Structures are given as structure tokens and as C-alpha cells.
Amino acid sequence: MKIAPSMLSANFATLADEIKEIEAAGADYLHIDVMDGTFVPNISFGPMVFGALRPMTNLVFDCHLMVQDPERYVEATAQAGADIITVHYEATKHIHRVIQQIKSLGKKAGVVINPGTPVAALDSVLPEVDLVLIMTVNPGFGGQSFIESTLTKIAKLKALREEHQYHYEIEVDGGVNAETGRKCLDAGADVLVAGSYIFNQTDRKAAIDSLRP
Ligand SMILES: O=C(CO)[C@H](O)[C@H](O)COP(=O)(O)O
Ligand SMILES: [Co+2]
Fold it and tell me: Which of this chain's residues are annotated to bind a divalent metal cation (predicted)?
């Protein structure tokens, strides 16, 4: 399993040091939450900010685009050094086209659904994607409580992957701590995103280690 600390909960005044610390502590991905104030009621940062961090770390840049019509920003995200670009099913009229756009730029393509969207909405893109992200909170803010009803989606995605020999990783995002993270892993998750749980602790290595079974 992999751990993806979410930069949203890091100290923005010392971002480079925060990133180096979680890399040394054994993180696998750096989860990068881009918010536009339209698709979600919050604004975070964009490609100019994480692009500046790219030369400072070898962590996989796992970009979660919470923006309306993400096709407008996929290219800039790729150019800023993203490795995985994940777009919301709910944010575009053309989810299949955006996935193709991401792949044509040589990046791994992910799709993400809100707690209110069923796995069935993803039928047509599951054969194409490298990652499926299940929101375990409503997107927009760190530090929210895990929504238990999302666990059944993880199990569904795992069963579909086995049945059809799909290749996507299953990632979960929101309200993940040692307890809820374990439930996600038991249900079949491969990647745990955790923001406040990791960055609110002074010992980030202990926090990351506590998420591993
Ligand atoms: O996408 C996100 C919010 O929309 C974040 O990745 C997520 O909320 C992480 O924060 P926390 O672990 O504190 O819930
Ligand atoms: Co996220």
C-alpha cells in the first residue's frame, strides 16, 4: 500500500521543508489539491506553486484537480511536473475526453467521484484509467470527518478490477487516520491520502508509519 500526504494541510510558509520531511519519512506520493473556488467552495494553489516544488523532491506528484472544466488546466498541470492527474467526474461534460487528453500528455490519468456519486457512473472510463479516487469526505477542505458509507465503493471497485482485469489503483481521500485508514485498506484501497492526520503531528514519520498495517 502507498501513503500520499496531502500538501493542503502543510505549513505553506515552509512548504519546501515540509515536503522534504515527508519524503524522508517514507511517503510514496505527494497529494496536491488544486481548488478553484467554483467546483469547490475554497481556493488553494495552482501549477505555479507546485511547479516550484518539483525540482526539490522525487515524490510522485499526485494532482487532484477540484476545478470546474478541468480540461482547461490539464496541460499546465502536466507542464508543472504532475505524474498523476486526477479529474472529477462531476466537473466536466466530457470525462472520457479529459482522460484521453491526460494520457496523450504522457501522464497517468485518474478519475475521482464525490460521496454522492455512484461507482456505476465510471463504467465507461474504468478500462482507461490508472487510478480511481474515492472521496471519503465532500471535497473542499481538510480536517473533515470520514464518511463511512463510502467504504462499499472501494469494495465494488476492487471487485470490478478483478472481474475485468482493469489496472487502476484505488485511492481514498478525506478524513483518513489510523482507524479509518485501516477500514479502507480492509475494503481494498491501495493508496491512502492523509492531510491533517499527518501534518498536525510533529512526528510525521510516526504518523505515516501508523497508517501502514
Ligand atoms: O481533497 C481534499 C479535500 O477536498 C484533501 O486531499 C483531503 O481533505 C485531505 O485532508 P484530510 O486528510 O485532512 O481530510
Ligand atoms: Co485531495
Answer: 31, 33, 64, 173
